[in-house]
């Protein structure tokens, strides 16, 4: 089964917590608590050997490893391995805010979720403010993200035509494809892929399911077919002179209308109009007539493809990466007149402290005052005496 769309839920790994220890245990001086290991990130990576998402279809949830907690006496926590999800070239990554990336190059990588930072131990937290801190940081919490993966096949040539025009037979004859063929409409319900190897260069070619009127607006298989054209270089319109409803000129107009209505940029692609079924003694003047079934004039078709110098052509699609993917460090919500709820990774960094209660309170207060949150609260109109909630930590705001 060909899978070109899939929903995934992703979880990065949490960072390991730092440790609290001292070289001099009796006086609790000379801190030597180590830091926790970083959590695993989730990376989406392209693999040219893949052609759809069937290899991950049965697994919709991916969780990266957590970083290891630190031990005493400078024994750092172990860093977790990143989790790599391989996808075919032509994959678009979409989240709740829209398109995240288009991955169309070989071995292209997208870090979709950053692994949690390992918490610092008390040795790293030593400062002029606190030369013997009795605290350590918790590891940064795991992050969650829900995404969609959608595929537009990376091909050199795409064969288009009405149902039962002989597309699957043609691709089977000129490539190593095992495309299913039969004499009834909609034999092909998903793309067939093959490689043309009997030319100077190898070309990837796909046979797309038959187009019908209204495909560009979603009729039939519609948009699920047409989206695979954005990453191809050459179109073959395969025409059926035996079609009793539309002659070849009408078929060309229908195909042009549906393809170009879907995306007008597709008008820039070179098109070969090829008439199939010459074995039925139904031919069109001024066009190349072939018989995919009897392999008539297939060599001439291949020569025309060679003359297009396909390797020097470019697809219309371009790689894309949304730059603000890992921003938005905190958010502020006013839940009542004097109550402000602050959430996000920055809040976790400020409040994720372990250890001596007094030292924990002082460190949280210091981090809050030196963050961007107070300034943002002022801009939003916070008043003296309001309650500020940072995660599970609450305090009264004093200007």
Which descriptors would you attach to this protein?
7 helices; six-stranded mixed β-sheet; Rossmann fold; GMP Synthetase, Chain A, domain 3; 399 residues; Spo0b-associated Gtp-binding Protein, Chain: A; alpha/beta
Task: Please describe the topology of this protein.
Elements: E1 5-11, E2 22-24, E3 29-31, E4 42-46, E5 61-63, E6 83-87, E7 91-95, E8 98-103, E9 109-113, E10 135-137, E11 144-151, E12 157-160, H1 167-174, E13 192-196, E14 203-207, H2 222-226, E15 234-239, H3 248-262, E16 271-275, E17 288-289, H4 298-307, E18 320-321, E19 331-336, E20 339-343, H5 345-351, E21 353-355, H6 357-369, H7 373-380, E22 387-390, E23 393-396
Parallel strand pairs: 1-5, 4-6, 12-14, 12-15, 15-16, 16-17, 20-22
Antiparallel strand pairs: 1-11, 2-3, 4-9, 7-8, 7-11, 8-18, 10-21, 13-14, 19-20, 22-23
Give the gist of this structure.
It is built from seven helices and 23 strands.
Task: Describe it.
- There is one protein chain.
- The protein has 399 residues and is α/β, with parallel strands linked by helices.
- It has helices at 167-174, 222-226, 248-262, 298-307, 345-351, 357-369, 373-380; strands at 5-11, 22-24, 29-31, 42-46, 61-63, 83-87, 91-95, 98-103, 109-113, 135-137, 144-151, 157-160, 192-196, 203-207, 234-239, 271-275, 288-289, 320-321, 331-336, 339-343, 353-355, 387-390, 393-396.
- Strands 5-1-11-7-8-18 form a six-stranded mixed β-sheet, with no helix packed on it. The protein has a six-stranded mixed β-sheet with strand order 13-14-12-15-16-17, sandwiched between helices. Strands 19-20-22-23 form a four-stranded mixed β-sheet.
- Strand 19 (331-336) and strand 20 (339-343) form a beta hairpin.
- Residues 180-188 have low confidence and may be disordered.
């Amino acid at each position: 089964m060909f899978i070109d769309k899939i929903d995934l839920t992703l979880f990065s790994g949490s960072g390991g917590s730092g440790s609290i220890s001292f070289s001099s245990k009796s006086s609790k001086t000379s801190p030597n608590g180590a830091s926790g290991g970083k959590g695993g990130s989730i990376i989406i990576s392209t693999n040219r050997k893949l052609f759809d998402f069937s290899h991950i279809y049965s697994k919709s949830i991916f969780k990266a490893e957590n970083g290891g907690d630190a031990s005493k006496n400078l024994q750092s926590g172990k860093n977790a391995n990143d989790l790599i999800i391989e996808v075919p070239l032509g994959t678009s990554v979409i989240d709740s805010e829209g398109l995240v990336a288009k991955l169309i190059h070989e071995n292209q990588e997208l870090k979709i979720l950053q692994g949690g930072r390992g918490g610092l131990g008390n040795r790293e937290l030593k400062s002029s403010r606190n030369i013997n801190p009795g605290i350590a940081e918790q590891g940064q919490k795991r992050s969650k993200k829900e995404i969609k993966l959608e595929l537009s096949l990376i091909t050199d040539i795409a064969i288009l035509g009405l149902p039962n025009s002989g597309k699957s037979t043609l691709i089977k004859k000129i490539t190593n494809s095992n495309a299913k063929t039969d004499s009834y409409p909609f034999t092909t319900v998903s793309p067939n892929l093959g490689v043309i190897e009997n030319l100077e260069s190898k070309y990837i070619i796909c046979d797309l399911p038959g187009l019908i009127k209204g495909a560009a607006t979603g009729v039939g298989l519609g948009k699920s077919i047409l989206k695979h054209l954005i990453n191809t270089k050459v179109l073959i319109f395969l025409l059926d002179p035996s079609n009793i409803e539309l002659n070849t000129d009408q078929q060309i107009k229908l195909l042009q209308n549906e393809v170009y209505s879907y995306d007008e940029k597709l008008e820039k692609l070179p098109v070969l109009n090829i008439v199939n079924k010459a074995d039925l003694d139904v031919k069109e003047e001024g066009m190349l007539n072939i018989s995919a079934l009897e392999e008539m004039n297939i060599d001439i078709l291949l020569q025309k493809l060679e003359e297009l110098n396909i390797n020097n052509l470019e697809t219309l699609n371009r790689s894309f990466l949304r730059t603000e993917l890992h921003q938005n460090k905190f958010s502020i919500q006013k839940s009542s007149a004097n109550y402000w709820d602050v959430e996000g990774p920055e809040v976790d960094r400020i409040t994720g402290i372990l250890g001596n209660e007094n030292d924990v309170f002082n460190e949280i207060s210091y981090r809050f005052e030196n963050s961007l949150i107070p300034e943002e609260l002022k801009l939003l109109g916070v008043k003296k005496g309001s309650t500020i909630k940072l995660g599970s930590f609450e305090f009264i705001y004093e200007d």
